[in-house]
């Protein structure tokens, strides 16, 4: 783990008070942690903007499992991008609807491309990608 | 499944051509499907804006599993919101870093609140929520 | 202006170094200012989530000024929401295309509603709202 | 203006009904127009993702005009990026706070860079960029 450093932020009293109220409502017990989270979130956004960076992502898909062939096509598209899908989890929402979330890792443009292809499959009702990180350098 | 309907959209030739190029690059093989996806995405956004709506979500978390007590605190916060977490999947990114994705279901404001609390936990490096749907009425 | 306060953030050396690189690239000369901007941005997002809050916004519209009646309809919709539009600026992009940006102030749900109506007008090619603030309590 | 084309979308009855309700609430009187807006919005997002594309943007800034030198620094940064700022409008929100919105045009990465620099200036309380378009090819 990286060494800790302490530094001083100058900030207006009222601004700090409003921030403290906001982060308490979100469940933070520690102001430094809330600020580190804001910092890390800017860094992850930046990581995805750089070409060739190795990243992690999740893709959330909601679909009707009765859609003909959808299961096969989902498997196919993942196999055509072998090595990008680390794991996936499937839950039954009701008799018709499923939610599946896949965890992807790899070069950012390849990960984006695979996620777009999964979301584009006929029968997927809703799909969203989360851009996240492999965590290195963010301790 | 809901009955199909056909309707006619009037659109500029050039606009349609540019859209066809864009969706082909994303992997769509069918223009109607691409348009239905745009429509469904607006509906899901709207679903989350209404109070009291029952929704589904995923929360993606990246953290260092050496952080003292983080595992316990993650379990605790989920137990204090019993019934909201349907499943969760955990993968090891490297010796230090884990990615965990939890599938949540429930009333939208409760789901948001639990997700914020998980993301706020000390030791979570990056957290993001995906607002999705239980899929009813989106066939 | 609110009184200044100094407080200490504890943070990992490497994380701080990466943040310093990022903010330098964005033109920040001062780390406290970058952190205050992250804090203020979370507060503005929260302001818009609360009902009944008085906010400011801008709506950016791109359109073809040859579209029949569009100018009149734009004026009409603004008059039906008298008091919300503070100013608007219009530039000619080329022979056909205009960009107009309107500055709105008022209760957040009314401002959103007016912006949606402007964006929905036939002939508007692209429209986007920016949620911002009247600035009080954000010094 | 580009020639119009008519094409048929196949869609589920229920989905279409929900979409009609949503767009009516937003002020659309015409379903084709709502769908064209969804299509154009995807195209503008894509335009900004391509390198070297010529785009338009607006930057909304809220600040306290008592901040020493801020006016000068705002002018300076705009002059160092001559040719990118087409117009700007300034309104007084109250005794202290101003809202300024600048209209930018140019190559997307330069426009982004200038907007980031403006937002990073000390004394700017809140800043947001809107990625929009010069409108060509979006009729």
CATH topology of the largest domain in chain A: Alpha-Beta Plaits
Numbering strands along the chain, what is their spatial order in the largest sheet of chain A? Answer: 3-4-2-5
The major sheet of chain A is characterized as:
4 strands, antiparallel
At CATH level 2, the architecture of the largest domain in chain A is 2-Layer Sandwich
Q: What fraction, in percent, of the residue positions of chain A are helical? A: 25-40%
Largest interface by Cβ-Cβ < 8 Å: C-D, 55 and 55 residues
Task: Give the overall pLDDT of chain A as a whole number.
Answer: 92
Number of domains of chain A: 2
The low-pLDDT segments of chain A are none
CATH class of the largest domain in chain A: Alpha Beta
Shape of chain A: elongated
Q: Would you kindly provide a written description of the structure presented here, covering whatever features stand out?
A:
4 copies of one chain form a homotetramer. The termini of chain A are close together. Chain A has a 4-stranded antiparallel beta sheet. Chain A contains 4 helices and 5 strands, in the order βααβαββαβ. In chain A, strand 3 and strand 4 form a beta hairpin. In chain A, 40% of the residues lie in helices and 35% in strands. The first copy, chain A, is α+β, with helices and mostly antiparallel strands and 139 residues long. The model of chain A has no long low-confidence stretch (mean pLDDT 92). The first copy, chain A, has 2 domains: 37 residues; 79 residues, 2-Layer Sandwich (Alpha-Beta Plaits), CATH 3.30.70. Chains in contact: A-B, A-C, B-D, C-D. Chains C and D meet through helix 2, strand 2, strand 3, strand 4 and helix 4 of C and helix 2, strand 2, strand 3, strand 4 and helix 4 of D. Strand 1 of chain B pairs antiparallel with strand 1 of chain D.
């Amino acid at each position: 783990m990286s060494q800790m450093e302490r530094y001083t932020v100058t900030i207006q009293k009222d601004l700090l008070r409003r921030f403290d109220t906001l982060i308490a409502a979100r469940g933070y017990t520690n102001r430094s942690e809330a600020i580190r989270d804001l910092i890390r979130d800017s860094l992850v956004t930046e990581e995805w903007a750089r070409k060739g960076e190795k990243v992690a992502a999740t893709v959330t898909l909601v679909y009707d499992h009765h859609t003909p062939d959808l299961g096969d096509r989902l498997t196919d598209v993942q196999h055509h991008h072998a090595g990008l899908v680390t794991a996936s989890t499937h839950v039954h929402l009701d008799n018709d609807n499923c939610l599946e979330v896949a965890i992807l890792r790899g070069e950012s443009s390849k990960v984006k491309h695979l996620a777009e292809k999964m979301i584009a499959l006929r029968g997927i009702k809703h799909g969203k990608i989360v851009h996240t990180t492999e965590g290195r350098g963010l301790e």
